[in-house]
Specification:
Strand order of the largest sheet: 5-4-13-8-9
Bound molecules: ligand MTE, molybdenum atom
Helix content: 10-25%
Number of helices: 6
CATH architecture of one domain: Sandwich
Order of helices and strands: HEEEEEHEEHEEHEEEEHHEEEEEEEEEE
Number of strands: 23
Largest sheet: 5 strands, mixed
CATH topology of one domain: Immunoglobulin-like
Strand content: 25-35%
Radius of gyration: 22 Å
Distance between the termini: 65 Å
Shape: globular
């Protein structure tokens, strides 16, 4: 682990990242606590693969001063064995690539009214990359874990970033998910993993909110429950290990204090929200879509056939997207878009719709997109403060204190100026 030098080094970090990633821009962090950069433009959402240079970055602590030569990943809670060097991870196990749409659980937070604290993301904290590395399954099988284990155990993963306070970055995911498709990634889009994305090795949890994909992984621990105070009691180092799992990244109304749970009945975030989980955890991503083109930055003119192609991306965590609709009249009428391009579970799909503005139309319109997942759940239209969470009304996303997991479509509309063709 490296030295924690606090806020100044964080701003230095942000400047470095912005220089290396020309396709990103700094995001506004109310409390000045995070290192955050977002996608610079909507154009990111017109293509399937997000270049490393455009992929957002988000973390709370300083990047550790890591060296792949000496980095070790401990595997605990299973058969004893040596910690893994990067060389062992690369050479002794299979290598796989997974597609993952990384979305910060705080994406769209800036759309909450009243404003919540923390990073005021608009739609900019999401991107899709190919991540290659070692399947968790191969490592755990090697350590004697029954890979067909269908018990309710968990994998608790420890980040090696230096806490700015006492809270070590630790996240728990169900062992079943870890064995199914999670990887310890050391490459992003075929390139060595950049430091800000977790060099030398990070967890990738396909289709789940970014918070679960722990960067700079130091330890994998097989546990009977999600991390609790007891899990790391033997460390006795004055640090706490439960904040990032249970204190942050929970969906709840103002002033609620979510407690430490050992497990949840479902890891589907939306199911928790409309079911009887009091303070849902942000695990798999809610259904979402974004238009990438037109991007609203410049006027559009219909082509020779009188058409304007509308393109974007839609995702639904580890569920499938079943439908995307586009409206060119501010939600009065909706048209089915075509889904096309790469189709991986855990990553977004591209969509397109050929819009024909009225001949000679000269004016401004708002373009909207809304997606539906395979469970028939459609994005709500807006975020609202609810008096009673017992019944989350249809078409409304509940305002929540942390501003998490919002997926309303109206705030993401694109205003586009249309100018007629010169005939
Ligand atoms: N160790 C560690 N891992 C972390 C974080 C962190 O603060 N520390 N931030 C998480 C959050 S909130 C997000 S959204 C993703 C972002 O991954 P990226 O920066 O590669 O896009 O990393 C996650 N992994
Ligand atoms: Mo995040």
């Amino acid at each position: 682990m490296g030295e924690s030098t606090g806020r100044d080094s964080r701003h230095g970090e942000i400047d470095d990242i912005l220089e290396r990633k020309p396709g990103t821009r700094e995001a506004r962090d109310e409390e000045d606590r995070y290192t955050v950069v977002g996608a610079a433009s909507r154009g990111t959402f017109a293509d399937w693969l997000t270049p490393v240079e455009e992929h957002f970055v988000c973390h709370r602590n300083d990047i550790p001063d890591a060296d792949a030569e000496t980095w070790r990943v401990r595997v605990t809670g299973v058969d004893d064995g040596e910690s893994l060097s990067m060389e062992a991870l690369r050479e002794d196990y299979p290598t796989v690539a997974v597609a993952h749409t990384m979305e910060c659980a705080g994406n769209n937070r800036g759309q909450h009214d009243p404003e919540t604290g923390s990073v005021q993301w608009t739609w900019d904290a999401v991107g899709t990359a190919m991540w290659s590395g070692t399947p968790i399954r191969a490592v755990l099988e090697d350590r004697g874990v029954d890979v067909n284990d269908d018990s309710d155990r968990w994998l608790t993963v420890v980040g090696g970033d230096v806490p700015a306070d006492d809270d070590v970055y630790v996240k728990s995911i169900p062992l079943s998910k870890a064995l199914d498709d999670c990887v310890l990634a050391y490459e992003m889009n075929g390139k060595p993993l950049p430091v800000e994305h977790g060099y030398p090795v990070r967890l990738i949890v396909p289709g789940w909110y970014g918070t679960n994909s722990v960067k700079w992984v130091e330890e994998l621990r097989v546990t009977d429950t999600m991390v609790t105070d007891a899990t790391f009691a033997e460390e006795d180092d004055g640090r706490t290990y439960t904040y990032w799992q249970h204190g942050a990244y929970r969906i709840h109304p103002a002033d609620a204090e979510p407690g430490i749970e050992e497990t949840v009945p479902t890891v589907d975030t939306w199911e928790q929200l409309v079911g009887d989980v009091t303070h849902p955890y942000t695990f798999d991503e809610n259904v979402m879509s974004l238009i990438g083109e037109p991007d609203g930055e410049r006027p559009v003119t219909p082509d020779a056939d009188g058409r304007v192609e509308i393109r974007g991306v839609a995702w639904a965590g580890d569920d499938r997207v079943s439908r995307v609709e586009v409206s060119t009249d501010d939600g009065e009428t909706w048209h089915d878009a075509d889904l096309y391009g790469p189709d991986y579970s855990g990553a977004w799909r591209l969509f397109s719709y050929a819009w024909e503005p009225k001949t000679g139309f000269d004016g401004t319109v708002t373009l909207l997109s809304r997606a539906t997942d395979e469970e028939g759940r459609t994005q709500p239209s807006r975020i609202a403060v609810l008096d009673d969470w017992a019944e989350v009304p249809e078409d409304v996303y509940p305002w929540n204190e942390g501003g998490y997991a919002a997926n309303a479509y109206r705030p993401n509309g694109v205003e586009v100026r249309v100018t007629p063709r010169d005939e």
